[in-house]
């Protein structure tokens, strides 16, 4: 091994050591979706003391939290009535009887519940 290889290796190893904690810290802390980054800077807007279960506030927030800013199903259905696919906010199965977070996830990829059974094409966020 030459002196330069040893130096390069040492550099690579310390680089790894420095990079590792930064990556795991970012992984451990759930982030909000890009569309919420500017408006939801306080985790407590969704994770309130009131919806905490057994002292843990990090439970799925109630629909009222989302509705306070986005309007109710009626208002949302109006926004999505022009789609080529059936209105996800006014389905004949659920109407308003399904939770926002059944489809819209905050810290993971959102899912379209309907597509458990159908193959609708939406661009859900
Ligand atoms: C403090 C107000 C606030 C709360 C609470 C909130 N949002 Fe939002 N949300 C916004 C704003 C502002 C935007 C960006 C502007 C827009 O698209 O309406 C946004 C964007 C979105 C978008 C993307 C819309 C688009 O067309 O790009 C979705 C989906 C969404 N929010 C769902 C939710 C859900 C589900 C919840 C509850 C878990 C929630 N929001 C809670 C304010 C809020
Ligand atoms: C059954 C799944 C489902 C549920 C439940 C649901 N959504 Fe959506 N939502 C969608 C889909 C799919 C879209 C995107 C449609 C498209 O543009 O392709 C959407 C779009 C949106 C948008 C963007 C609307 C726009 O301006 O175009 C917002 C905001 C939103 N949803 C909020 C909510 C909130 C708040 C709730 C609860 C009250 C909720 N959604 C419940 C599936 C759902
Ligand atoms: C717009 C509302 C909203 C905001 C703001 C929000 N969360 Fe969440 N959080 C959720 C929802 C919804 C879930 C349920 C799982 C999911 O959708 O990813 C959740 C679940 C969690 C969980 C349970 C574990 C998991 O990932 O499922 C933790 C921990 C958490 N959030 C931490 C945070 C932290 C930390 C912040 C601030 C950086 C934050 N949340 C901001 C809506 C929110
Ligand atoms: C558990 C499976 C399942 C899920 C989830 C589901 N559907 Fe369906 N859907 C069906 C079945 C089965 C039919 C045919 C029988 C019927 O009309 O009820 C159907 C029929 C339909 C029809 C045609 C109804 C008509 O008037 O003929 C539409 C539109 C529809 N679904 C929309 C949706 C939407 C939007 C969602 C999500 C919000 C959804 N479905 C979620 C099983 C499902």
From TrEMBL:
Q: Name one GO molecular function term.
A: metal ion binding
Q: Which domain of life is it from?
A: Bacteria
**GO CC field:** cell envelope
**Entry's Pfam families?**
Cytochrom_c3_2
What cofactor(s) does the depicted protein rely on? heme c
Provide the protein name.
Tetrahaem cytochrome domain-containing protein
Which InterPro entries did the record assign? Multihaem_cyt_sf, Tetrahaem_cytochrome
List, alphabetically, the Gene3D superfamilies matched.
Flavocytochrome C3, Chain A
Q: Which UniProt keywords apply?
A: Electron transport, Heme, Iron, Metal-binding, Signal, Transport
Organism expressing this protein natively: Sutterella parvirubra YIT 11816
Tell me the first and last residues of the signal peptide.
1-19
Which positions fall inside the Tetrahaem cytochrome domain? 35-119
- Predominantly, its location class is other
Concerning SUPFAM superfamilies, the annotation shows: Multiheme cytochromes
- What is the annotated localization of this protein? Cell envelope
Source species taxonomy = Bacteria, Pseudomonadati, Pseudomonadota, Betaproteobacteria, Burkholderiales
């Amino acid at each position: 091994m030459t002196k330069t290889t040893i130096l390069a290796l040492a550099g690579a190893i310390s680089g790894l050591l420095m990079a590792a904690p930064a990556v795991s810290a970012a992984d451990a802390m759930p982030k909000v979706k890009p569309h919420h980054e500017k408006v939801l800077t306080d985790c407590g807007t969704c994770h309130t003391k009131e919806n905490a279960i057994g002292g843990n506030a990090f439970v799925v927030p109630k629909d009222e939290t989302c509705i306070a800013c986005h309007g109710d199903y009626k208002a949302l259905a109006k926004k999505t009535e022009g789609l080529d696919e059936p209105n996800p906010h006014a389905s004949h199965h659920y109407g308003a009887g399904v939770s926002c977070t059944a489809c819209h996830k905050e810290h993971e990829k959102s899912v379209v519940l309907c597509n458990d059974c159908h193959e609708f094409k939406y661009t859900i966020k």
